[in-house]
Write a structure and sequence with these properties.
The complex is a heterotrimer of chains A (291), B (166) and C (783). Chain A has 291 residues and is of the alpha+beta class. Helix content of chain A is 35%, strand content 25%. The chains are: A alpha+beta (291), B alpha+beta (166), C alpha+beta (783).
Chain lengths: 291, 166, 783
């Protein structure tokens, strides 16, 4: 299982990388390599040129400024997992990143690489959707920013034009004391999720849900924000009945199915996971309120 | 017959020693270590990043040797199973613990497990069994059923901690 | 007088220092001057014919030396198929693979051409460019469907998919069922899994023109099988074909077979006059290395009012895959294993072996027994359920007792001898397992958990396993002129630490240290006769041979020393690598000196009347198989909403007779259980209706990991056998054999509130949820 031949290009700066991306034909960008190199070894993908972004330090890094987090695309998944400041202000990241592959995967895998790859079961795109992140794409002639909601165009097809490089992800923090939960279902830890849920809950002063965000991963072409679920949650007091209603709503969504995992099971799983996720997110929010 | 594909020379440090050798752009780091440098201790079990047999340390971090290109390791510090023993040739605490606790049978997955654990125990010297099992979840062993590996890792962790105190 | 300094001890492995420091020499580590590498062109269709292979573009690519199709192989190979190693009169079409398919392929992955190039990378580039004019044909994708009228035929020359039929039985089955108080009927379907050693297969071949001889390295369990096949294919003499096993990274059964690559690569090496290597990659392993476990059992058990077995009958459909490299032995093993540790007055099993357009099946850790134990243990649980009895009690009422040994259970084993269980205490094994597992307290624990909304369950799996299969595995021992002792044996190792085990046995007889002994195995040039490492047979056979030869060698050393000192052999004794006169200091002669005396060195005179051979051989031939047994108890927790199963506790009572090295036996048991957990919960090779494999990477085919496999509580019982000098039985497969049965029983027990019945394995979370849902629908309907 050796990859087909290609020419390797090492980009030292973003400008160099953008120049290469604009001029090389049949080229792909190499970030962590944890998905791309496996596909190339299997010869599912063959390119003439690989542009290595790993030396481009200017697009790696974690910045937290005035309630807004910016993650450079080449930030290693491990760095996000272990960052104490991030864990304090955005604890769902740590919980979710723990599901991303294994130690070895996270040592090389990057935030931007996972986003650009857009595997339906990937955690980072799910988080980006949940947090309503903005994605910055940079090319030779400049940069543009788009909302995560507009980023997936189809199955593993992000809105990235030829010559563009995903350079950063940014989102606003939820207020202190918000509740969170990320969970997914797989037979073994680190496997691709059959279904996964991320929930964020903010309670108002009266203990009702003031704001809710819920995302499903692994069930369709891309991350699925459950706006209808969020609508029925908003303004309500947390309760088992509420979570059950949310779960039923989630489970009613059409989902993907194949010979190995059926749509019916995915729907069932989604319902269970949404219910459990909301229960814990609300419990955490309630706990924080009483702290 | 046309020439074979172009090669380039890369220089990197492996197990403390600098090496310069030729590689094709598409050779994985594992391929390069094994065939370019003759360090066959690192093994290929799946070449799609799941089994972990090819795990080596690059700048101290455990990575899949099959998913990293040799050319990406230019200028880096790489450690393989051949570099884990002590300077005087005696087994490291981890290697010795594997021997004492029957932590290997066929030995094919062992290089990846040793490098993974070497890095993990360095970063988590007080790791208990659940953490170790999670740390090992990216390495597949078909022979042992893992309990002796975990036992060896716990024993090694104890030895290392005691050595650090001394 | 032999000591027991080593046998029975947890001796550390001689293999470890090299393996721990990266000095192992596995197949892909081999590098010979001028060596080329190979990549095969493989069929993307499960069944197809072809007439033309266009390799013109491939041949012109960088670094490509040759592209060989069946037409390009030497004339001697034309029209020949790989030697069938286990013929049987009941086989209808004894078909094995051609080295390269000539016109028809019968499973996805079957090879039709090979590219030889300067590197594997370049070979793969060229292999992609080979064009074959495939004409796809309908394919048979499951053994059950394959036997139905009108099913697609696996082989175009056949009119059906019957590979063979067998019938076994004894006693009056009709009467048993007539007189039964209860009859339990069920269909059980264990599913296909794979071996997946961490090291894939591989072959390196060198042909020497001057001596007209092959040297072949293969990552195999049995170099003698490969040698036999090469000799047969090329028409060469056995001393012109040497097959050597390097370090082997796991075997588990499939590496015991002979594969087309082991014939094509030597042919290529000879044609091209250069060494050639082929190292299988994991995708090829998924496609071409043999698999096992697909079976369909339709069985009935007749019991009296107390749940005592009166008879069992049924049919078994066994999936052979597309070819029969190991004949039809496996379903035979399954059928003879079914009765297990229970008294069965009457039995009949009709076996149909079915061809399918899937990867061929051959013995894989357990070799047909896990499926048989699954069927029998599920039947026992069904009896318990029907009669409202504790599953352990039903088994107790049916066990063969220790006092019944040796017990003729009524059938004939694969070696032609009657299945006579030699020793073992089955009731005691279960009792100890239940005690260790806290079985009697379990109902209370289960109730308490249920009150918390948690579903926990417990399950039992008992088995009896024929091990130590003959015909032989010999050993030759020699004291070398450097004073070390060499053991030469046919046995090839793949992680079982033969070097250590065999050294332990010899060390005790010769009163030396295990580190004074070098074991060389798995090389037909060193040991011309060998049967192989499979069927849990090496400790029994090679171990016994080493014991016999060690005793003989000890006698020779003593006699030689006595002659040198001019005393009687009774007056000398062994002492740590030397022989001395008893009771006296000073007069001793070292092994080194003794060896030099007998090596023909000038200046060393042989004592009068003594023959110059400080060497001894043993070829232990077992009179019959020896029967290991065990009892497993699994405790699980099931998340009834997601179907996730977690193993909380796993208890093993394991009886393999005399234990040579408890550390190694524990390792085999724990590792075997891990594989069994895979068969119970995770591992399934899935094919679609066109027989295309759907699970072809480790992302889809799930192997047990450190987070899934618990530490087993292992209790050793030792019921030594009188059938070999060691009293030992095989230990390599017992961990796997009853594990799926015990775990599935535990899952079903956990789901008692839902009334779910599980009849296949692996049992996945999705399936559990489906079963719960179906059971709840049924309950709804009943209302």
């Amino acid at each position: 299982m050796k990859p087909a031949p290609f020419t390797y290009h090492r980009a030292e700066t973003l400008a160099e990388a953008a120049e290469m991306a604009a001029t090389l034909d049949n080229a792909r960008l190499l970030s962590g390599g944890q998905s791309l190199m496996a596909m190339m070894n299997l010869r599912y993908v063959a390119v003439d040129h690989l542009i290595d972004l790993n030396p481009v330090a200017e697009i790696a890094g974690i910045a937290i400024d005035g309630g807004r987090v910016t993650l450079g695309a080449m930030t290693r998944q491990r760095a996000v997992l272990e960052d104490a400041a991030l864990a304090a202000c955005c604890p769902i990241l740590r919980e979710a990143l723990g599901f991303v592959g294994h130690v070895q995967t996270r040592n090389r895998g990057t935030v931007g690489g996972s986003l650009a790859h857009l595997d339906p079961a990937a955690e980072l795109p799910g988080l980006a959707a949940l947090l309503e992140a903005e994605i910055t794409l940079t090319g030779k002639d400049g940069a543009r920013t788009l909302a995560m909601a507009d980023f997936p165009q189809g199955y593993m097809t992000p809105d990235i034009n030829p010559g563009e490089i995903l350079t950063s992800l940014a989102f606003d923090l939820w207020p202190d004391g918000h509740g969170w939960d990320f969970r997914e279902f797989a037979q073994r830890h680190g496997d691709f999720a059959m279904a996964g849920v991320g929930s964020l809950i903010a309670l108002d002063a009266g203990g009702r849900i003031g704001r809710a965000a819920v995302v499903l991963i692994g069930v369709g072409d891309g991350p699925l924000r459950l706006r209808d679920v969020e609508d029925i949650l908003t303004g309500e007091a947390p309760s088992d009945a509420l979570f059950a209603a949310a779960a039923a709503m989630a489970a009613a969504r059409p989902m993907s199915g194949d010979a190995l995992v059926t749509e019916t099971y995915r729907q069932h799983l989604s319902g269970v996971l949404v219910r459990r996720s909301l229960a814990r997110a609300c419990a955490r929010a309630t706990e924080a309120a009483h702290a | 017959m046309p020439d074979a594909l172009p090669k380039r020379t890369i220089t990197l440090t492996v197990n403390g020693k600098e090496h310069s050798a030729e590689t094709e752009d598409r050779y994985s780091l594992a391929d390069f270590l094994r065939h370019g440098l003759g360090l066959t201790g690192t093994h290929l079990g799946c070449e799609h990043g799941v089994c972990g047999a090819c795990t080596v340390l690059v700048d101290g971090q455990a990575v899949r040797g099959c998913l990293m290109l040799a050319v990406q390791a230019e200028g880096r510090q790489v450690v393989t199973i051949e570099g884990l023993a002590n300077e005087d040739g005696t087994l490291s605490p981890l290697q010795a613990a594997f021997m004492d606790n029957h932590g290997l049978q066929c030995g094919f997955c062992t290089p990846g497990i040793l490098t993974t654990l070497t890095a993990y125990l360095r970063d988590h010297p007080n790791a208990g069994e659940p953490e170790l099992r999670e740390a090992l979840s990216g390495n597949i062993c078909r022979c042992t059923g893992y309990d002796t590996i975990v036992r060896a890792a716990l024993a090694a962790a104890r030895t290392i901690r005691e050595g650090a105190k001394a | 007088m032999s000591s027991t300094a080593f046998v029975g001890q947890r001796v550390k492995r001689l293999e470890d220092p090299d393996l721990l420091t990266g000095k192992g020499q596995f197949l892909d580590d081999l590098k010979l001057p001028g060596m080329l590498e190979a990549a095969f062109v493989r069929s993307p269709f499960a069944h197809a014919t072809f007439t033309e292979i266009d390799a013109a573009e491939a041949r012109s690519m960088p670094g490509v030396i040759a592209v060989l199709t069946a037409k390009d192989l030497p004339p001697k190979m034309t029209g020949k198929r790989i030697l069938l190693q286990v013929p049987h009169p009941q086989i209808t079409y004894a078909v094995t693979q051609e080295p390269l398919a000539t016109s028809e392929v019968c499973f996805v992955g079957e090879a039709v051409a090979v590219v030889i190039a300067e590197s594997r990378h370049l070979a793969e580039d060229a292999a992609e460019r080979v064009i074959v004019d495939w004409e796809p044909l309908p394919a048979a994708s499951h053994c059950d469907a394959a036997l139905k009228p009108g099913a697609p035929v696996t082989h175009a020359c056949m009119t059906d998919n019957v590979a063979g039929r067998l019938s076994l039985g004894f006693g009056d089955v009709e009467a048993a069922f007539r007189n039964a108080a209860h009859v339990i009927e069920a269909r059980y379907e264990p599913h296909r899994g794979t071996g997946h050693p961490m090291e894939c297969r591989g072959v390196v071949a060198v042909y020497d023109l001057v001596s007209d001889a092959f040297r072949i390295w293969s990552s195999t369990q049995t170099p003698h099988n490969t040698q036999r096949a090469v000799i047969d294919m090329f028409g060469m003499a056995e001393d012109h074909v040497r097959v050597i096993t390097p370090d082997v990274g796991g075997g588990f059964g499939p590496k015991n077979q002979v594969y087309p690559e082991e014939l094509v690569i030597p042919a290529a090496a000879r044609l091209l006059g250069r060494p050639v290597k082929w190292a299988e990659d994991r995708r090829e392993h998924f496609l071409t290395t043999t698999q096992e476990r697909d079976q369909v059992w339709d069985v009935s058990a007749a019991v009296d009012q107390d749940g005592v077995l009166l008879g069992v009958r049924g049919t078994l459909i066994h999936d052979a895959g597309a070819y029969l490299p190991w004949g039809i032995i496996m379903p035979y093993i399954s059928a003879t294993t079914l009765p297990g540790p229970y008294k069965l007055p009457a039995y009949r099993m009709a076996v149909t072996v079915a061809f399918t357009n899937l990867v061929p099946t051959t013995p894989l850790r357990g070799a047909g027994r896990p499926q048989a134990v699954f069927a029998m243990e599920r039947l026992m649980d069904a009896v318990a359920q029907k009669l409202g009895l504790d599953p352990a009690e039903v088994r107790r009422r049916n066990f063969i007792q220790a006092s019944d040994m040796p017990y003729d259970m009524g059938l004939t084993y694969r070696d032609g001898a009657p299945v006579m269980y030699d020793t073992g205490d089955y009731p005691e094994a279960q009792a100890q397992a239940l005690s260790k597992a806290g079985y009697d307290d379990f109902p209370a624990r289960q109730k308490a958990a249920l009150a918390e909304g948690r579903h926990i369950g417990i399950g039992i799996g008992n088995y009896v396993e024929g091990t130590g299969l003959g015909p032989f595995e010999g050993a030759t021992l020699r004291i070398l002129t450097n004073g070390r002792v060499a053991i030469y044996t046919g046995a090839a190792a793949a992680g079982q630490a033969h070097r250590t085990t065999l050294a332990q046995i010899c060390a005790d007889e010769l009163n030396i240290d295990v580190t004074d002994i070098d074991v060389v195995g798995g090389d037909t040039g060193v040991m011309p006769r060998g049967a192989g490492t499979y069927a849990s047979r090496i400790t029994v056979n090679a171990g016994s041979s080493v014991r016999i030869a060690s005793v003989e060698l000890r006698g020779k050393a003593l006699a030689l020393a006595a002659a040198k000192f001019d005393v009687k052999p009774e007056d000398v004794e062994l002492t740590h690598g030397a022989v001395r006169i008893k009771g006296e200091q000073g007069d001793s002669v070292t092994f080194e000196e003794l060896a030099k005396m007998t090596s023909g060195m000038p200046g060393y005179a042989l004592p009068k009347g003594v023959k110059p051979d400080l060497e001894a051989s043993g070829y232990f031939t077992p009179p019959q198989a020896t029967y290991s047994n065990g009892s497993h108890v699994a405790e699980v927790e099931v998340d009834a909403e997601t179907g996730q199963v977690k193993i909380l506790k796993y208890t093993v009572v394991h009886d393999c007779g005399t234990v040579i090295n408890p550390m190694l036996v524990d390792g085999q048991v724990q590792g075997g259980v891990a594989h069994g957990i895979g068969n119970a919960l995770l591992e399934r090779m899935v094919f679609d209706e066109d027989a295309n494999p759907l699970t072809t990477t480790f992302a889809d085919y799930l192997m047990p990991t450190a987070e899934i496999v618990p530490n087993c509580d292992i209790v050793h019982m030792e019921s030594p056998t009188p059938l070999n000098p060691l009293g030992a039985k095989g230990a390599g497969e017992g961990g796997t054999i009853p594990a799926p049965a015990a775990i599935v029983a535990a899952v079903e027990n956990a789901l008692t509130p839902f009334g779910v019945r599980i009849t296949d394995c692996p049992i996945t979370p999705q399936r559990i949820v489906e079963l719960i849902s179906a059971a709840q629908d049924t309950t709804q309907e009943d209302r």
